[in-house]
Design brief:
Elements: E1 2-9, H1 16-24, E2 32-37, H2 44-52, E3 57-59, H3 66-76, E4 84-90, E5 93-95, H4 99-109, E6 113-122, E7 129-131, E8 135-136, E9 142-143, E10 160-161, E11 171-173, H5 174-179, H6 192-202, E12 206-217, H7 235-250, H8 256-276, H9 280-294, H10 297-310, H11 327-359, H12 376-393, H13 396-411, H14 431-439, H15 457-466, H16 471-501, H17 508-519, H18 521-524, H19 533-549, H20 557-577, H21 580-599, H22 607-623, H23 625-633, H24 654-659, H25 669-681, H26 689-709, E13 714-715, E14 720-721, H27 726-750, H28 757-783, H29 799-805, E15 812-819, E16 823-829, H30 839-844, H31 849-860, H32 864-872, E17 875-880, H33 886-893, E18 898-901, E19 909-913, H34 928-948
Parallel strand pairs: 1-2, 1-4, 2-3, 6-12, 15-17
Antiparallel strand pairs: 4-11, 5-12, 6-7, 6-11, 8-9, 10-12, 13-14, 15-16, 17-19, 18-19
Helix pairs in contact: 6-7, 7-9, 7-10, 8-9, 13-16, 13-17, 13-28, 14-15, 15-16, 16-17, 16-19, 17-27, 17-28, 19-20, 19-27, 20-21, 20-22, 20-34, 21-22, 22-23, 25-27, 25-28, 26-27, 31-32
Amino acid sequence: MTVTALLVSHDGGRWLPAVLAGLSGQSRAADRVVAIDTSSKDGSADLVRAALGDEAVHVIPGSTSFPDAVAHGLATVPAASDDEWVWLLHDDANPEPGALAALLAAAESHPDADVLGPKLREWPSLRRLLEVGLTITGTGHRETGLERGEYDQGQHDEVRRVLAVNTAGMLVRRRVLEDLGGLAPELPIFGNDVDFGWRAAAAGHATYVVPQAVVFHAEAAHRGLRRTPLTGRHTHYQERRAALFTILANAPAQWLPWQVVRLFAGSLLRMLGFLCVRSVGEALDELAAVVSLYSHPGEIRAARQVRASRRRGEPHDVRGLLAPRWLPYRHGLDFVTDLVTAASNQAQDVAERRRAAKAAELPVATAAASRPRPDADDEEAFLRDTGLVARFLSNPVALALTLFAVLAIVAARAAFGSITGGALSPAPEAAADWWRLHVEARHPLGTGTDVPAPAYVLPFAVVGSVLGGQAGAVVSALMLLAVPLAAWGAWRLLRVVGHLVDPAGLPRWVLVWGATTYALVPATSGAWSEGRFGTVAVAALLPWAAHAALGFSDPDADRRWRAAWRTSLLVALAAAFVPGVWLFALLAAVVGLGAAAFIAPRLLRDRSAWGPPVVAVLAVPVLLAPWLLPLVTTGSSAGLLLESGRLPGDRVDFTGLVTGRLGDLGAPWWLGLVLAVLALLALVPVRTRVPVLACWLLALAAAVVAAVLGQVTLQLPVASTRPSLGLFVVVLQGAAVVAACLGGTAYLRRLAGRHPAWQRAVAGALVVVAALVPLGGLAWWLASPSDVLERDADAVVPAYMEQSSLLGAEHGVLVLRGSVDDGVDYRVRRGDGTTLGEDEVLALADEDVAFTKDVRTLVSAPTPAVVTALGDRGIEYVVAPAPVDGRIASALDATSGLEQASAEDRTTRAWRVDRPLSAGSVEGAWAWSRTVLLVVQGLAVLAVLVLAAPTVRRSRDG
């Protein structure tokens, strides 16, 4: 029995001395040794020459693959006998002294064995198991049958047949190796061991693992300890592509169609899994591997033909050597379990930090501190025994917040069902209408327009799809849950702000007051009653965005970058409803970085210090690209200063800014004035004066910007209006709440000891007055009429015309109002009318001068040519609601091509266009630029979601 040892090396100088010592120290030495070096740059070839001699070393180009290196090594030495064995070794695989002897002993005791492999243990730990035989799952997972980090305790020391063994220490008959064509050249470095074992098994050759033979393997290429021209920087790409190739090249013909579909879908699922753990690089490698292999089907076809031509006789069934079918699902369950465990560990870390911060609080001398307190162990046992319900019922803060949320939903009872009115248009029939509005480049609205759909259409469409396609449920959910969501976000924000100002944080009842007071801003300002869902949504999102932005001050750089991506996502979502949020955030970032450059210029030298806020504001335009870029290019930049919903906008004056009122439907002015006074009194305590001043500076900046915008008039195609100021009302109210909470806490703690009675009386009076703000606001909202939002009553278009308009864009209805003397206004109704998401488009759409000229001719001197032009513009009916100008009606009655149509109201006149209808000028063609913007937005949203997720560090070595 002759053995030829074949060693392949490439930049393995750090391991080769031990490997060469292990090779020379074998109790049963190899008969011949051949070394192939692929142009190492670290002196590996010299080390091998010094140990084996010049004649045993062959240097070949560095781009040579491992299979080609093995083939070249065998070509340098002729076959010694019919019973020659080849022992393959890597330059990072160190065999124990008895490894070769154990392999040869197993070959004698198992005459049917043609391939044998050792037990691989980790190097340098020496005790951790890597492989005891190999197989592969149906999804391409390299399966070892070992637990992660499992130590060798002799539990796998049984010689058994397996599908494949690693080439690091593989002992194979030379005759079998040559008959099978050697290792697959299509697999240059990874996966050739499993592929060779599968081919050998299919040809009737047996592969055994011999655990008594031990080889220590550093897995340098797999772990990225070295890079070669074959691996590059994308190790996972090479490994995954090799796994897919192995499955598709060796699977039986009857399995192939199923495997093609399964591997493609499984790879996409794996990519999503990598994204969930923020392994963006591996997710892209996964996708690249699928695209690379599936785009070259000829490579798989040629590989299958080669394998079929090298088989001798009927192929053998290898199903018993493959991994069980259920194993991939167990791996998936393990992955989900790891995710849950990681999230739980992170939540536990946060809880530990909060407990540590709470333990560091300074004790406050109060009267209640002298009361007897039950033993801590007894209290914990009581809470553990009574459970979560008892803890909830015994927590007055939890009860108060729950009661507030319930009452807020009761006060918003008008939002149950379909709501509309004020700035809120009716919702479309289904969420698919929002998807269409978001995707199309030209909208068949009015006479057709290229103005982009508002950015909030996308989140509405996503939520609507989750809710079963019910568009009306999205609007109802927003108006119902905005106040509780704002309370939750304000609670979280105030807790963090309180701990940043004072390690003791804010008292729980101060948090309750601040959270509920801020949460009522959408209602008490009048935004809710006026249907200004943009301001309502921003009020709910703003504390969450501010809470995320506070992460910029975290000492950990990774947390700062995660805070940047979370902030950008939340700011983009808020800017989708009110674009001014991004502009104000951009201003705040510039001011903040300018102040940092003045106060601490060294901070700006650290990219992880100034990078997160810059990224947070610059990522927003990318996330909103399908709306922002077309808005600018179509000349509709005025939309940046408006909020979502119908025109006209809010009517905010100086009094409204001070008291937090948008219009006439807000709460009594004195509630907002009380809050302003409390924020002013918060400047008195010295202890919190600096953070309170910061709140006032933020409020001042918002007030200045609001004052400047208040002097601007936007000349829109449909009307003149002022910029929306609802955002600044929310910012001012939020700043006042934070300031009042900080100042009030400092004042109350100052009075915790013994003080004169009059000071205690003043403190009590302030507490009562402060409590009136949330209690009064909630009581006012509960007492408000429940039908403040209701469906518009003026339906000037008959029902049969509405049904006809649903048939397509060519069945439009032209509605005329006014007279020849006073002027005529017109609008075009298509589909189901103007629905939510279309108001902003029509408000910014430029006037169609040619169509206006046709309408002018129609009402003054109608001709058959004008009627034909109406048909070409997709106008089927003309409607003139009462009061109707008699000259217009008589002229239209006498016009050829117009037939009188019935109207439900006798005072309303209607005509039908008796001409061929076409909507060619209204509907737009596909635009590649829109597709590019949508793809960019989709990738940006996916990337930001991944980067904003908690970090789950993955380790290759378990």
